[in-house]
Amino acid sequence: MEPSVTSLPKDPSSLWSIHRGRSPLIGTAIHDGHLIWPHLEARMALDEAGRLREEDPFTAQFIADMANRMVVHRSRFELDLNRAPDGAIYLHPDQSWGLRVWRDQPEAQDVEALMRQHASYYSTLRHILSDIEAEHGGFVLLDMHSYNHRRAGAAALATSQDEAPDINIGTSSMDRARWAHVLDPFIDRLRQHKLGGRSLDVRENVAFAGKGEQTRFVHEHFPQTGCAIAVEFKKIFMDEWTGEPDEAAIADLREAIRSSLPVLEAALDARR
What we know:
The protein is of the alpha/beta class. It has 6 helices and 9 strands, in the order E-E-H-H-E-H-E-E-H-E-E-E-H-E-H.
C-alpha cells in the first residue's frame, strides 16, 4: 500500500504557511510537511515510506481551529526545524533513530541554503510572536507533534500505555512554576475529552520532555510573556506503518484542542 501523506501545497517550493488572526494563542505544526527539494531527494537513501514514518502527518489538522497558526510543508528529513542549526540536517544515523538518510550527503552550498531556511523560519516566528505579544501582552504557543508506538513492526505489540500516553506534554524548557496557571488547566481539559469512549491519557514528560529547539527558542526570547507547550500525540490517529489516517480519531483530537482554547485564553487573562 502506498503511504498516505497530508494535503501538500500545489507549489513544491512552499516552505510554510502562516495564518494570522486576533488571538493570544498560536499553533505550529513544524513536522507536518513531506516536501523535499528534488535534487536533495535524489541523494537520499531513505525512501518515502521510511521518511513518512518519522514525520508528523495530520498534525496541522489539530491546530486548524486556532486563529494564529504556522504549518511547515518541508520534511524534517530535509531540515528539522525543531533542532538547533548544527543538528538540523540528519547527516549521521545517530541523529535519526538509526536510519541512514543520505546515500550521498548534501553539498556545502545545499547545507548553507538549508541553514538560511532554518534562520528564516525562526526570524519569521520571532516577528509573529513579537506582534502577538505587543497586541495581547503575552501568548501561548502549542507546538504540535506526534510519535510512534509500534516501532517493533506493524504486527508487533505496541509500547505499553505506561510509557506512551495518548498525549505527552513536554515542558523541560518552561518555567513550570510561572506557567502552572496556564499549563495545569490545559492538561485537565484535555483529560476530560474522550476518544473511543475513554478519557484521554495526558501526562507530562513521559515519552518526551519537550527538549525541542522551538520551545527552547520561545522561552529564551520571551521569558516573561511566552508559554510554549510541546504537545506530542501518540499515533493513535493513524497507522504509522502505512500512513493511513483514522479520520474519526483526527476529528476527536482536533476537537480536544479546540475545546481547550477558551481555557487557555481565560488562564492568560487571569494573570493580566
